[in-house]
Specification:
Blueprint lengths: L6 H13 L2 H6 L3 H22 L5 H15 L7 H10 L5 H8 L1 H9 L3 H24 L9 E2 L3 H26 L8 H22 L1 H5 L3 E2 L3 H4 L14 H4 L1 H23 L6 H22 L15 H11 L6 H19 L1
Parallel strand pairs: 1-2
Length: 349
Amino acid sequence: MGNIPSKTILLGPLLKSVSRSFYLTLRILPAGMREPIGLAYLLGRAADTIADTSLIPPEHRLDLLFLFRDRINSDGDHGELTQIVREIADQQIQPDERVLFESLDQAFRVLSQMDAPDEKAVREIASTLTEGMEFDLRTFPDEYSGQIVALQEFKELDWYTYMVAGCVGEFWTKMTYAHMPGTFRASSETMLELGIRFGKALQMTNVLRDCGKDLRIGRCYLPSAMLDPLNLSPQDLLLPASSLRARPLLYELVQKALDHFRCAAEYTLAMSRTSVRLRLACLWPILIGLDTLLLLVNNDDWLDPAKVSKVRRSDVYRILLSSLPLLASDRLLRIWLQRKMEKIEARTR
């Protein structure tokens, strides 16, 4: 499997190279939380790469994903990891992705050396994430088929956002209780539910932002039950005029995302004001997500993949800096977030 990186490289430079903007959040986490969350991210990223390697037929990707899930849920390697690495790594254009697969043996070694509660939690979240990817592979056609398949009902989209992100909010909350006791000022039941809604907020934003790109590989996450009243089919969404025709649906889903973001805001504000690192780690994705939603509702061509609604890197750094002076004030943070949401809502009326 090539040169096996040290634990420091695995959870440092390699993690940074494959996690992009999420690494900003990981860097500021309290030390005890970085390892389990960072490792869970790497395993989830590997599973996602298995599911998205389009040069391998979907049926075989499913087989490899099942092998990977078996490896996640077992203590020993019976050869399946070697098979996965061999088949997936050779197909990767990006060298960092190739190194990630060649480093999986070390990742599982680090996992087996964790404290038992952390090891169990990482295995559970990584396994759940593979279920979301299995959903994609079972639901949608081959990327090269020329076909487009849509989800049927909103409940499918809601379940999907749980499997690929809501469960991460749940896991994050468990890690906070385990490593930073006393952080939350609400009950564990409340925080777990808010954490799930937090993850769903971020994934719903991703779904809307990436809709144009996903349509062109046959995946329509916009449910047919919501397209039908607008007399739109998944294929219609490829037409130049579709962005305007589908705008009512965009607004409806943005409102659902905002409901989740309100829970994400409550999640962040339920943290002790002295938990500076954790507050920032939660606040930054909220701010970037809300700015993305604002770009979406102002984008007349939101379904055109060439005109994606993406926050520029310079604006990300502006967000990071502007958040620091307000961090210690619940009142100012609440006002700031509420104004951002009202600005988005005003555009959807």
